[in-house]
Design a protein that fits this description.
By secondary structure, the chain is an alpha/beta fold. It has two domains: about 240 residues, 3-Layer(aba) Sandwich (Aspartate Aminotransferase, domain 2); about 130 residues, Aspartate Aminotransferase, domain 1 (Alpha-Beta Complex), CATH 3.90.1150. It has 15 helices and twelve strands. The strands form three sheets. It has a seven-stranded mixed β-sheet, sandwiched between helices. Strands 9-10-12 form a three-stranded antiparallel β-sheet. Strands 1-11 form a two-stranded parallel sheet. Helix 1 runs antiparallel to helix 10. The radius of gyration is 22 Å and the shape is globular. The model has no long low-confidence stretch (mean pLDDT about 95).
Length: about 375
């Protein structure tokens, strides 16, 4: 498939960088002592993030669960063995309502998997420092701050204020920054734990990276003898993360940015003037250095809805996947970061082809409710195809 959606887990997240592929291939036939390999990972993560220590786990979602567990148990092996039974432990996790997102699964489920419970702060579109202060009572084990395009972008407590208030109450802050470019800013801002995906922008193998205070990281790593057993990462994932971090430090990020901008320009040039299509630039909402192209589709002039056009592109001989989180609003986005130049051209050609086909066929457009029901049915009947 052609991935014009971005670093989405459902599409394989990203293409692994050649360095990570080679490192994984070289270590797979070998035996290693995992704790020692994780020590190497800790040094690599500390160097890349400015944290005191780090380790690699199965995914960012696993890292959220294990970091919350660490806040509940510390290094107490008995408590670690008892989770998710949190009897006698602080088990509340404060999180702004605007951060209670679904990123493929509800983030509150990642919290509950540790045996913890959610303590919502504020309302979806508005949270203020006084509400956070009121929530941080003596039942709170940790506070979770989510940095993602999925979260409510306005009306939230800024990270600096969030960290400051939690520090005053001795509540550790865990930052879920799975899809973020900035590897150093969250630790520098005072986060006790910062969590990154190894396989999205970094281009490692599927894994999650935990960086933070050494005592906290140690407690999270010890969860591998408890609930973390089911979230373990293999030697290839660990060495892939180490190698991806090194490749990231050496990457010519400015050159990558120029290539991405050229793909955006190509799309604007090729798709400009097509009746029913309107384009605008869409800067990344969390300030990652990525700009996407937002394509508004007017069904009256394009003879097709945004959701039906997204499906038509995905159903082609070579599927083209677009960023369709907001198709209900009549648009989808094209992300240039995982594409080659020739694939960007195929995306433009595919859109032009499907719009022309829709105008020629004059099929009635589906409603968004019908489209949603069709997508849900496909999920519920897997592995059959509708």
């Amino acid at each position: 498939m052609i991935n014009a959606a971005g670093t989405m887990t459902v599409f394989g997240a990203s293409a692994a960088v050649p360095e990570a592929v080679r490192a994984a291939s070289e270590i797979l036939p070998l035996f290693v002592e995992i704790d020692d390999l994780q020590r190497h990972a800790s040094r690599a993560i500390a160097g890349a993030t400015g944290a005191e220590a780090g380790y690699v786990t199965a995914s960012s979602s696993a890292a959220v669960t294990l970091s919350i567990a660490a806040a509940m148990t510390g290094r107490d092996l008995d408590r670690i063995a008892r989770l998710p039974d949190a009897s006698g432990m602080k088990s509340g996790v404060a999180i702004q309502r605007g951060h209670l997102i679904d990123y493929g699964a509800p983030i509150e489920q990642a919290i509950r998997l540790a045996g913890a419970h959610v303590v919502p702060v504020g309302e979806t579109k508005r949270a203020v420092p006084q509400q956070l202060e009121a929530a941080l009572d003596d039942t709170i084990a940790a506070a979770l701050y989510v940095v993602s395009h999925h979260v409510e972008q306005s009306g939230q407590i800024p990270l600096d204020d969030f960290v400051r208030i939690c520090a005053q109450r001795n509540v550790p802050v865990i930052v879920d920054a799975a899809s973020e470019y900035d590897l150093r800013g969250f630790v520098a801002a005072g986060a006790d734990i910062a969590i990154y995906s190894a396989h999205k922008f970094l281009g490692g193998l599927t894994a999650g990276i935990v960086a933070g205070r050494k005592d906290f990281v140690r407690a999270a790593y010890l969860q591998n003898g408890g609930i973390g057993r089911g979230m373990k990462v293999g030697k290839e994932g660990i060495v892939g993360a180490i190698t991806a971090l090194d490749a990231w430090a050496k990457r010519d990020h400015a050159a990558h940015r120029r290539h991405e901008e050229a793909r955006i320009e190509l799309w604007m040039r090729e798709l400009g003037g097509i009746p029913g299509l309107r384009m605008e630039l869409s800067p990344d909402p969390t300030k990652n250095p990525v700009t996407r192209l937002r394509l508004h589709i007017d069904p009256a002039n394009a003879a097709i809805t945004a959701w039906d056009l997204a499906d038509a592109l995905a159903d082609g001989e070579r599927p083209i996947m677009v960023r369709d989180d907001d198709v209900a609003h009549g648009y989808f986005e094209l992300d240039p970061c995982n594409l080659s130049d020739s694939e960007a051209e195929e995306v433009a050609a595919g859109i032009i082809r499907e719009v022309r086909s829709a105008k020629a066929a004059l099929h009635p457009a589906s409603s968004f409710a019908e489209w949603s029901a069709k997508r849900l049915a496909a999920r519920l009947t897997w592995p059959d195809r509708n």
